[in-house]
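pinging the channel bc i need a second pair of eyes. not urgent but kinda urgent?? the chain im working w is below, pasted from the shared doc
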Amino acid sequence: MFKGSMVALVTPFRGGKVDEKALKELVEFHIKNGTSALVPCGTTGESATLSYAEHDRVIELTIEFAKGRIPVIAGTGSNSTDEAIALTKHAKHAGAAASLQVSPYYNRPTQKGLYLHFKAIAEAVDIPIILYNIASRTGVNIEPETFAKLAGIKNIIGVKEASGSLEQMARIRNLCPKEFLLISGDDALTLPVMAIGGVGIISVVANIIPRDVAEMCAAFEKGDVAKAQALHYKMLPLVKAMFVETNPIPVKTAMGLKKMCDPEMRLPLCEMLPENKERLVKAMKEYKLI
């Protein structure tokens, strides 16, 4: 159910408010272009600057607009266990197919604390849970041995792995049951992660090139490694441009250039530096996106 190109969906804003019309158009765009799941209210969705009401509303709308055609994996993580449980309960009630749970940020729990945090959420809400490991954002890495323990909890079904370490990912794949999903959290590593047993990507770049990301994942799954490699190398310069500044600044700028939604972000995110925007525009032109 959760494999292939899953998009870390941006939250479109206009005039300081969530742009519900643009959100609906983005959901349709992804369904038409082969995206296999929608992931609202994650890092790319600027969840940290959404109010509780907005967070709940974006998840509700994404589910409503998807109309069951593809699953919605709701970003409902927090550095407060009680808050994560409350957000996850709402997502389940709204009809989310699963929850994405980022590891607690800022308070930097121990491995025991991480285990107890995720265990508490899984026991409180009967919904499939995908963990999200991104130490560059949170300040703490979920170690492979901790994943092995967490994989024993029935509704913890996988991980979005954004450690950047293929060695760590290989150890997770080796230590966890084969049904535990290994999902890339880094667009540049999607193909290598699939080569070691991953099932796909929760992608940033799929916000603008969903068809290519979906086709790369599908080609690898079908055994057409040559096609998957060709798409991987085609996308690589654009992927690099997506991260010249903090995500989602470049991808939202790119979407603004393509008139997909307003490029508006919320502080402390801000407009790109001119030299970095030039690099982004160059990569988009070379990809024939503009």
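so Residues 173 and 189 are 15 Å apart (CA to CA). and The mean pLDDT is 97. — does that match what u expected or am i reading it wrong
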